[in-house]
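ok, trying the design again with the full structure, not the truncated one.
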């Protein structure tokens, strides 16, 4: 949300803008897309005190029925952002947040990461429907809207795949990925000097079940090895087994520069413990935050730091290009990173 610096992945923002100002300014883009026939609108995990001082828009019965459908006249599909984000999980269990969202008139409810959480939310929805907490009218209307969207956007003919990975598309995504890389601090370490030995210590994602390929390397490691084949790579397995940690510490002690590639380590005390240990062992360190940029603020001892805001292939290419001096990163974050 533009009116708050708090990221809903981490915490729950609250906006005190009066309703009249919301309608006259903040909601103008929504009016425009609704008039243009947009099929779905996503709610945000933000409290709008003028409408509901207690619950975020995702869970509030005053947002979808009153504001979105009543005032703005939207009859398409309303969907949540991921309910595994910190703004929600800090206050509600999955079964409760799912039931609240459905009772508030949301049609599609997203849990984007964890199977066990999804199953708990599903059970919560079933129980809420059986108890009457989610009304039959809500269920029927949600089904109607979802079916209407499916029918409107059904693919009836095979799509044209010729454009995929075309030269023009690759040029566009490469430029976009490079423009998004933020060099938070360089300290004379980035780009990496040619003459120093390099170690790459890569953390697994806290959420993904599969990060590494069959060789134990990730896409980032493969790209770095293609350019700097003398790089020592340590890919930490899920659970951070002690033998992996010892390899990482040995690599950091031996290398001139250690690259620490993280994926939201700030969300895990154990990941933070190991990350700080590797930074302490390293002679010179470069932090690459491949997921949430808050790793930069959580690990201030890294000599240099950059953020990619994602780990898709074009972003990994852009990270390697930045580390090796192919271009100068100019991206910036819209949130406060710290560190």
């Amino acid at each position: 949300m533009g009116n708050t610096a708090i990221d809903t992945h981490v915490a729950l923002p609250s906006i005190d803008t009066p309703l009249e100002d919301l309608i006259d300014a903040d909601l103008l883009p929504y009016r425009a897309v609704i008039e243009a026939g947009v099929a779905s609108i996503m709610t945000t995990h933000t409290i709008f005190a003028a409408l509901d001082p207690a619950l975020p828009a995702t869970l509030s019965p005053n947002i979808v029925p009153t504001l979105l459908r009543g005032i703005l006249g939207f009859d398409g599909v309303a969907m949540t952002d991921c309910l595994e984000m910190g703004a929600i999980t800090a206050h509600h269990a999955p079964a409760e947040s799912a039931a609240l969202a459905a009772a508030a008139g949301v049609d599609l409810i997203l849990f984007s990461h964890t199977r066990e959480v999804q199953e708990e939310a599903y059970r919560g929805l079933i129980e809420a429907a059986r108890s009457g907490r989610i009304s039959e009218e809500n269920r029927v209307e949600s089904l109607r809207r979802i079916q209407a969207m499916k029918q409107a956007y059904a693919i009836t003919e095979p799509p044209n795949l010729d454009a995929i990975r075309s030269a023009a598309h690759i040029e566009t995504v490469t430029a976009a990925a490079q423009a998004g890389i933020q060099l938070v601090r360089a300290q004379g370490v980035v780009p990496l000097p040619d003459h120093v030995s390099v170690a790459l210590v890569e953390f697994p994602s806290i959420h993904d079940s599969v990060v590494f390929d069959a060789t134990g390397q990730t896409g980032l490691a493969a790209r770095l090895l293609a350019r700097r084949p003398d790089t020592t790579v340590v890919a930490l397995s899920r659970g951070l087994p002690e033998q992996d940690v010892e390899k990482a510490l040995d690599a950091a002690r031996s290398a001139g520069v250690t690259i620490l590639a993280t994926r939201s380590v700030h969300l895990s005390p154990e990941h933070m413990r190991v990350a700080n240990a590797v930074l302490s062992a390293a002679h010179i360190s470069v932090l690459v935050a491949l997921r949430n940029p808050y790793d930069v603020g959580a690990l201030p001892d890294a000599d240099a730091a950059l953020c990619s805001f994602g780990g898709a292939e074009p972003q990994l290419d852009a990270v390697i290009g930045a580390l090796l001096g192919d271009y100068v990163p100019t991206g910036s974050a819209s949130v406060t990173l710290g560190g």
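Keeping the full-length input from now on. Strands lie at 14-15, 40-42, 47-48, 77-79, 182-185, 198-202, 232-235, 257-262, 285-289, 304-307.
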